[in-house]
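User: structure tokens for this one?
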Amino acid sequence: MKAAVWHAKKDIRVENVDEPVVEAGSVKIKVEQAGICGSDMHEYVAGPIMIPTETAHPLTKGTAPVIMGHEFAGEVVEVGEGVRHVNVGDRVTIEPMILCGECKACREGRYNLCAVIGCFGMSGVGGGFSEFTVVPENMVHKIPDHMSYELAALVEPTAVAFYAVEQSRLKVGGTAAVFGAGPIGLLTAQVCFLAGAEKVFVMELAEERRKVAEQIGAIAINPAEVNVSEEIMKQTDGGVDVSFEATGVPVVLQQAIDSTKMSGQIIIESLWESNPTIDANSVVFKDLHIAGSIGYRNVFPTVIQLIADGKLDVTKMITKKIALDDIVTEGFESLLQEKSQVKILIKP
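Assistant:
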């Protein structure tokens, strides 16, 4: 079968690989749709970050080269011995976390904080950028019959945004600022509205992405044209209640801090290739609260239902659909060069 395999930074190849074999407790899936994630882009541009290379991942025992892809959906075509809750023909999406189940975080149910967490599609045990893949039964979530595979492939990134807003102090009638209008930023803005935000600002350099932000009801601001924090202060009573940092660009974190009201909150959703520098006194003197949000936990069923019922319209995120053979030129390189692209889906 064909699969997109990461070998090194800027070196992803579509290759013929052995079709995976079902084992006890696992499920074989024919992949129908898969999305390129921001973390996939980080691995392509600056990796390895999460992909194990010289040292094997402690749970999977795998190293690069690895099949990529962790945002995907498809049809179950085979189940292994002992599988009880998934059947051949089920339409499913995947929650791709690989967990030890033994560390303090796992024992307490905070599995997204697992001490040795891995990610399917990065940690060396297969991925969704392939025609078929095999996952443990516990990664599988069934989707409603009326939900398309395209929408189901967007459950994973939506779960990231949903969890970040769920962890925040945003209240009904509140205000929010989202820095970055990539997939996670745009999805975060949508979830803020769903949570009852009265006003949501989205900061983004790319015009096409600002247009998408406006389509979902946000106030889009071009940080190249105005001072972001000053503009937000003008349009709010001293700043927003909660700011969400979704760019991973060092200078932006300070903008988020400066745009947040006294005793407000900043949620950091980004992964960082380099560390930001901030004015710590601006945090202290405003009595601000800074929190991180990583991945998600216990939200997939809710997110699936919200998307399936149309309460979260994620279709605006999809800007291109491509074949697996074109994943580098029309996928990764397109996302690098064309700022109008938001979410690119692949049909293996």
